[in-house]
Design goal:
alpha/beta; Aspartate Aminotransferase, domain 1; Aspartate Aminotransferase, domain 2; 4-stranded mixed sheet; 14 helices; globular
């Protein structure tokens, strides 16, 4: 085995992991770590969850892939489960978050062409500064962080960035040429920055006024992470389109776009497609995960765990002046530090706790949604120890 054969696209920690169980993960020497990264909000039920493992075993022995020329029951069941637990009526399946974003961008452009208010120029997409939506060319074009964009210009045209949570700027930006506004209810990579309710209400009003689609990127903050199945349900503002992935597969690659009927109707056969999207194996796993989160009441305990962690972190804030702010919602938590966050995460790693950074000076905590109090306390002990050292 050779690390040199892997393309140099990530700055990786010097460890090779072999197996995991719950919130614990083990390297090839058997050394145990507490995992508060969860594959970047992917492993919502932890590692090697028995229900997911059993679903994979059963479904893989029956049928894994058939293509979208045919129907499969698992895809229909998962689509039904998503729609039953949202305010939306249609689903498109894909394999990742960035693919979900690409789908939403194409859908919004097509919707703009068909809009009753179409003036021939209804194709502008408005996005937020400091946002992150993915690394394909379309998703990158609406990612509000120039450091990710510069090397890949020219990007797609007719897009415009505005300041996140700035009501005046969004009011001055949305017009009859706008086909969509895309945003994260909680900016994850940007530093765990939550949207203001009034800002979201304003965007919703403007999209209604100008017949534009409101797209929520819930790839990181969705599927139970905020304490509701969808982040929009915490705000009471319903988007036209929701992009999701990560936790929907619990470790297996799957993405989805959930849309209102009026938005989904813009697509007709031939407009969009995905070879692996909606395959029987992936959708069986997605259905298993939603059943555990919703019917198994795992989501119901997220807010309580969040409050417990935040109360401990706020106590640390009083004790250790290096903490500036505790951010986030549910089990998407950010610690804003006045010190080097990379050094902080490295020290945590040395003490066998996995955390990652986000934005400018923020450390992210993303434990599994079913994380135990024992594992929470163990992680917090490491965090306090590192804070004391720094």
């Amino acid at each position: 085995m050779s690390k040199s054969n892997i393309m140099n696209t990530y700055g990786r920690f010097d460890v090779v992991f072999e197996k995991g169980e719950g919130a614990r993960i083990f390297d090839r020497d058997g050394v145990e770590y507490i995992d508060f990264v969860s594959g970047v909000a992917v492993n919502c039920l932890g590692h090697s969850n028995p229900k997911i493992v059993e679903t994979i075993k059963k479904q893989s022995e029956k049928l894994m892939h058939i293509s979208n020329y045919y129907w499969n029951e698992n895809a229909m069941n998962l689509a039904g489960k998503l729609c039953e637990n949202s305010d939306h009526q249609k689903v498109f399946f894909c394999n990742s978050g960035t693919e979900a974003i690409e789908t939403a961008l194409k859908l919004s452009r097509k919707y703009g062409k068909l809009s009753s208010k179409n003036n021939g120029n209804k194709n502008e997409i408005i996005y937020m500064n400091n946002s992150f939506h993915g690394r394909t060319m379309g998703a990158l074009s609406v990612t509000g962080q120039p450091k990710y964009q510069e090397a890949f210009r020219p990007l797609i045209g007719d897009v415009k960035s505005i300041k996140f949570n700035d009501i005046k700027e969004i009011e001055n930006s949305v017009n009859e040429n706008t086909c969509a506004v895309i945003l994260e209810p909680i900016q994850g990579e940007g530093g765990i920055i939550c949207a203001d309710v009034e800002f979201l209400k304003t965007v919703r009003r403007l999209c209604d006024k100008y017949d534009a689609l409101l797209i929520f990127d819930e790839v990181q903050c969705g599927i139970g992470r905020t304490g509701k199945l969808f982040a929009y349900q915490k705000y009471g503002v319903v988007p036209d389109v929701i992009c999701m992935a990560k936790a929907l597969g619990g470790g297996f690659p799957i993405g989805a776009v959930l849309a209102k009927e009026k938005a989904a109707e813009a697509f007709v056969p031939g407009d969009h497609g995905n070879t692996y999207g909606g395959n029987p194996l992936g959708t069986a796993i997605g259905y298993c995960i939603l059943s555990e989160l919703i019917d198994g009441k795992i989501i119901d305990a997220v807010d309580e765990k969040s409050e417990y962690i935040k109360s401990k972190l706020n106590a640390f804030k009083e004790k250790y002046k290096v903490i500036e702010e505790i951010r986030g919602m549910g089990l998407l938590i950010g610690i804003k530090l006045s010190t080097d966050t990379k050094l902080f995460s490295n020290k945590c790693f040395e003490k066998k706790l996995l955390v990652i950074t986000a934005g400018d000076g923020v450390v992210r905590l993303l434990p599994p949604l079913n994380v135990s109090k024992e594992d929470i306390d163990a992680a917090l002990d490491v965090i306090e120890e590192v804070l004391g050292e720094m």
